[in-house]
Design goal:
By secondary structure, the protein is of the alpha/beta class. It has a domain of 241 residues: 3-Layer(aba) Sandwich (Aspartate Aminotransferase, domain 2), CATH 3.40.640. It has 14 helices and 13 strands. The strands form four sheets. Strands 4-10-9-8-7-5-6 form a seven-stranded mixed beta sheet, sandwiched between helices. Helix 8 links the parallel strand 8 and strand 9. The longest helix has 38 residues. Bound molecules: pyridoxal-5'-phosphate.
Length: 408
């Protein structure tokens, strides 16, 4: 087929995606969010094709220099973002360069942990991140990973059990953070024990970064984490990418110079401008946004449970994050009804989730939904999921009443 046909097909696919995912569904994926119009504009700006590589000037020359010309605005844009990240997450040193949450994790772990280092991390079966399972990052970099105990509803971490494990295993680092992430950690207690034994405390905030920015969930660096890093597009409503913040100069001096040529070469400056914009917007709107997201999640959990879906952590208020989880057997009397079946039925009704039973409330909060809307949303989810009704046209009518984003 001739190339212009392919281009036409591509244009139609992109337009169709935009109409579908950005305008015609309620997105309940906890890993996603909606970008502010200004951040979107910066993503499509000239910065998208530029390089910059600032570094200290050669011996004998004053100040700093750059291997590329034409970078006077790029470098200033990076400073705006780094300074905003440092303010929001309460550390003195920040970088917005990591291209993703996974690469932000590598940016911290690779320079800080030598081959053979032992890490305590929450296993994927308890909601931990797959990337920290033995076959992935630990296999690539020669680390030994041991399970940090996470139990009870939603894989929460108990201080006594965590401290016992730190005493027993004497790890080089305690690596916190989960993909299924409902409750904050007893971080002060964990950090006190870890630091007394010379272990680092590393906090993967990928899922809860937007909540932390808004003063919800917990304040990792002030509660004892040595380094915080994560994705900037899950509860944090920025472009896909990552960031890293620490209050420890000694650690940043190891991490920062190791970014370029180890984890990546050029960073993506359009993304960094969009991220800087989101950080600045969250300085203004973060507290109201994060409060609404968490209240929505708690209200949604309650409204679904009342309507017959079995929800994780029902006895503990469901969640303190942007996620709630459907139990693996979603109905007590129908053990065949799995979250994956629900997700397929929901998608037919324009309600987008993942196949592992997580429902996230960050993007709907950006659209303007509040806790008082959660019973209506739960009713639609139950009709589509449990009763297998097609509610797509009702969802579409409701979705079309939200035309702009809140908290931007
Ligand atoms: C806890 C955790 N860390 C890291 C990542 C990787 O993030 P990214 O997709 O931004 O690389 C994920 C992805 O879902 C995650 O859940």
């Amino acid at each position: 087929m001739a190339n212009p046909d392919r281009e036409g097909e591509l244009a139609r696919l992109v337009r169709s995606h935009e109409r579908w995912r950005a305008k015609s569904v309620f997105n309940l994926l906890p890993s996603e969010n909606a970008l502010s119009p200004t951040a979107r504009k910066y993503l499509g700006s000239d910065l998208a094709g530029r390089y910059t590589l600032p570094h200290a000037a050669p011996e004998g020359e004053p100040g700093s220099t750059n291997d590329y010309g034409g970078t006077r605005f790029t470098d200033a844009i990076e400073r705006v973002g780094n300074e905003a990240a440092a303010r929001l997450f309460h550390g003195r040193y920040a970088t917005t360069r990591p291209l993703s949450g996974h690469l932000a994790a590598m940016s911290a772990l690779v320079p800080l942990l030598p081959r053979g280092a032992k890490i305590l991390a929450i296993p994927p079966q308890r909601g931990g991140y797959d990337g920290y399972a033995p076959g992935y990052l630990p296999a690539m970099f020669g680390w030994v990973v041991r399970p940090l105990p996470a139990e009870g509803p939603g894989g929460s971490v108990d201080a006594v059990a965590a401290i016992e494990e730190i005493r027993k295993e004497r790890p080089s680092a305690v690596l916190l953070g989960q993909s299924l992430f409902l409750f904050p950690y007893p971080l002060r207690e964990i950090a006190e024990e870890a630091h007394a034994r010379g272990s680092l405390v590393l906090y993967d905030a990928s899922h809860v970064l937007g909540l932390i920015a808004g003063g919800q969930f917990q304040d990792p660096l002030r509660e004892g984490a040595d380094v915080l890093f994560g994705s900037t597009h899950k509860s944090f409503p920025g472009p896909q990418g990552g960031l890293l913040v620490t209050d420890r100069e000694d650690l940043f001096r190891q991490i920062d110079p190791a970014l370029t040529w180890r984890v990546f070469d050029n960073a993506h400056w359009n993304r960094i401008a969009a991220l800087a914009q989101t950080l600045l917007e969250l300085e203004r709107f973060g507290p109201a946004y994060a409060r609404t997201v968490v209240e929505n999640a708690q209200a949604l959990g309650g409204a679904l449970e009342e309507r017959g879906l079995r929800m994780v952590a029902a006895g503990s208020g469901f969640t303190r994050s942007h996620q709630v989880h459907v139990e693996r057997a979603a109905l007590a009397h129908d053990r065949q009804l799995l979250p994956s079946t629900l997700a397929r039925r929901w998608e037919r009704s324009r309600l987008i989730t993942d196949l592992i039973g997580r429902l996230g409330t960050a993007e709907v909060a950006r659209l303007g939904l509040t806790p008082s809307d959660m019973p209506k949303l739960a009713e639609l989810l139950v009709r589509a999921g449990l009763r297998n009704e097609r509610v797509a046209s009702e969802v579409l009518r409701w979705r079309r009443t939200y035309r702009t984003l809140a908290f931007t």
